[in-house]
Design a protein that fits this description.
Blueprint lengths: L10 H23 L7 H6 L6 H11 L3 H14 L6 H22 L7 H6 L2 H34 L3 H49 L3 H10 L18 H17 L2 H8 L4 H33 L13 H13 L5 H33 L8 H29 L3 H25 L5 H25 L18 H15 L5 H5 L6 H19 L16 H6 L4 H6 L9 H4 L18 H5 L18
Helix pairs in contact: 1-8, 1-14, 3-8, 3-11, 3-12, 4-12, 4-13, 4-14, 4-16, 5-10, 5-12, 7-8, 7-13, 7-14, 7-15, 7-16, 7-17, 8-12, 8-14, 8-15, 9-12, 10-16, 10-20, 14-15, 16-17, 16-20, 17-20
Bound molecules: biotin (BTN) and sodium ion.
The site of sodium ion (NA) has 6 residues, from helix 14.
Length: about 625
């Protein structure tokens, strides 16, 4: 962008941005100097299991609502229309299943890391593989989250790119390292509020500038940006109701069901009921966040595609265009550009801090403590802090890698979740729903899932065969860089010549990566388990099975259920207690379950002797 056009910030904008960073650092320092002063891993990694559902629910949203969504979703709506909004349909099952399947199992096992479950259910090898896969996923994702706001701002406002990345990374590393999970959760609460405020400000000013709601609605209809319900069953169609509403459920389960960052928040809740309730509370806020970013895309469309503003954009990146739009709208309103920049960095910081903290947790709990069981509490906490800061530096390096990735940041992030989060989800489903699955099957399944996911993911990047619908005729961009034009031409060619065989496989919508890789893990895992001798039910650790059979077959008469080994005889008193499993990894297993938890106790027997599963909300 030539300097004359660059949008400049007024002093008050910089002040607002600085206040955001200072407030975040301040919250971190507060929790470093208060409470237990972060002296135990129980406090540093799990906030003493004392959190209530409001902060937990806001932190659950903030963890996976980064600048990628703030910038990427409006760019998506602007370019392709409102089809992406159907992702909201995936939030229903995407949050109900975690609330009633994953949380009850994981919470009652009193874990400190989600991957401890894999050792309890399978073996240490499965746990290590799951942990390493998670680390890979979050490190790459963190890179995208750090890079996105800095790159977008630099492209439009000349904001110093790497200086911003450095400052953001350091502030985030600081408060995460000194303040632990309590600081991360409370900064998430503050940052989520800033996120919503920033997006709302842009929408209010944008609608007013675009001539009011009716004017915006007219232009958006004229530019056919309101997508209807696309029920096309073709799995290579990038965004349809099926890819978003159904494929999106697997994406949500991989994030809100089994991702360590979210599981850690469930485990930090005071009671299981609080954890379930916080999962429910995520739903309205997530819908609001989705609506705000979609509406922002529509307002941006009304503002540019109606008039000839489009030719002013000299950038081929749709993501940078969102920042251009915001700076254009908020220009001349001192403080608002600063508010939006604060919103962008709040989104980034809240996600990166969650990633740091969860990475430090799993590295400590799943990789280090099992090797050094006699490590003292003080030393373990120190190592956890060192890990949080070293992951901070690694994330800056990953930001540079994102620089090379190209593509729209939203697509990059969703592909990462699909390719890596999907297989992890598959291993947990294999463990929870199939008592016969053994650890050989789990490891092989995970490998097969990752292999298939990377095959299709990399294949789609290499052959660029993933179809991308083009702009509606009413909106012609002057795309400067010739490589974009040639990409458009090749895409036109692809659309005309329908891909077949392997090319069709590569053009699978990236929204199916989660579901596809998850099923690959389960199928492979079951086949290998049967080939290598399925696990006997009595060998399965109590409390690690979710009696899917009973739940799905509960409509059958009791006698049939008995035949299908899903009898529901009441458990004796000692069976009702959640199992005090062997390896707490030195981490005290927390306070003994409260009487309330005992009443909710998940049966400690596998499917056949199960009793009330209902987690009363
Ligand atoms: O915002 C990001 O950092 C990643 C993109 C969104 C990730 C998924 S999409 C479904 C769910 N809704 C969100 O706001 N985030 C997650
Ligand atoms: Na965030």
């Amino acid at each position: 962008m030539d300097p004359s056009r660059q949008k400049h910030f007024s002093v008050v904008d910089y002040v607002i941005f600085a206040v955001l960073l200072a407030a975040s650092a301040g919250i971190g320092l507060y929790y470093a100097l208060s409470g237990g002063r972060q002296r135990t891993t129980q406090e540093f990694l799990l906030a003493d299991r004392s959190m209530r559902c409001l902060p937990v629910s806001l932190s659950l949203i903030a963890s996976f609502q980064s600048a990628v969504a703030i910038i990427g979703v409006p760019a998506e709506i602007y370019t392709h229309g409102t089809q992406y909004w159907f992702m909201g349909c995936a939030y229903v099952l995407g949050l109900l299943i975690p609330a009633h399947v994953f949380i009850p199992v994981l919470y009652r096992l009193r874990l400190s890391s989600a991957y401890q479950y894999l050792e309890l259910r399978f073996s240490k090898a499965v746990r290590v593989c799951g942990t390493l896969t998670f680390i890979f996923q979050m490190v790459v994702y963190m890179g995208v989250c750090v890079y996105t706001p800095a790159f977008a701002l630099n492209a439009v406002t000349g904001f110093e790119l790497w200086g911003t990345v450095l400052v953001t990374g350091l502030v985030c590393t600081l408060y995460t390292t000194v303040g632990g999970l309590k600081a991360v959760i409370w900064t998430d609460v503050f940052q989520t509020a800033v996120m919503f405020a920033g997006q709302l400000a842009v929408i209010v000013v944008g609608v007013q500038r675009a001539g009011g709601v009716s004017e915006v609605w007219r232009k958006v209809l004229e530019g056919n940006r309101i997508s209807g319900l696309d029920l096309n069953p073709d799995p290579t169609e990038r965004h349809t109701f099926w890819t978003l509403g159904v494929g999106g459920v697997f994406l949500m389960l991989s994030l809100y069901g089994v991702n360590q960052a979210q599981v850690q928040r469930y485990l930090s809740s005071r009671t299981e009921r609080d954890a379930v309730r916080s999962c429910y509370m995520v739903f309205p806020s997530l819908q609001l966040a989705l609506a705000l970013s979609c509406i922002m895309g529509l307002v941006m469309f009304a503002q540019y595609c109606g008039e000839d503003h489009a030719d002013k954009l000299k950038s081929s990146s749709r993501d940078a265009m969102v920042i251009y739009f915001v700076m254009d709208m908020l220009q001349g309103l001192p403080g608002l550009p600063g508010l939006f920049v604060a919103c962008l960095f709040s989104a980034a910081l809240s996600t990166i801090s969650s990633a740091f903290n969860s990475l430090a947790t799993v590295t400590m709990e799943d990789l280090i403590k099992p090797q050094f069981p006699s490590m003292s509490e003080a030393r373990a906490t120190l190592v956890s802090k060192a890990l949080a800061s070293s992951y901070g530096l690694l994330c800056l390096a990953m930001a540079y890698l994102t620089h090379l990735m190209g593509d729209s940041v939203l697509q990059v992030a969703l592909k990462i979740f699909g390719m890596v989060g999907g297989p992890i989800l598959g291993v947990f489903c294999l463990g929870m729903f199939f008592p016969c699955a053994n650890s050989t099957g789990a490891v092989t399944g995970l490998g097969a899932g990752l292999l298939m996911a990377f095959w299709v993911g990399i294949g789609s990047i290499v052959t660029r065969s993933s179809k991308t619908e083009l702009l509606a005729p009413s909106c012609h961009f002057v795309l400067e860089s010739e490589n974009t034009t040639s990409a458009l031409q090749t895409t036109f060619r692809n659309i005309t010549s329908r891909p077949s065989g392997l090319r069709r496989f590569y053009s699978l919508s990236y929204m199916w990566y989660s579901g596809f890789s998850c099923f690959t893990v389960i199928l492979t895992g079951l086949i290998i388990s049967f080939l290598t001798g399925p696990m006997k039910e009595e060998d399965v650790t109590p409390g690690t099975i979710y009696p899917l059979g009973e739940k799905l077959l509960c409509f059958l008469p009791e006698c049939v259920q008995k035949k299908l080994c899903c009898v529901t005889q009441p458990l004796s008193e000692e069976e009702r207690l959640p199992p005090q499993h062997k390896d707490c990894n030195g981490l005290s297993c927390g306070h003994p379950p409260s009487s309330q938890e005992e009443t909710e106790g998940l049966s400690s027997q596998p499917c056949c002797h199960n009793v009330e599963q209902e987690t009363a909300v």
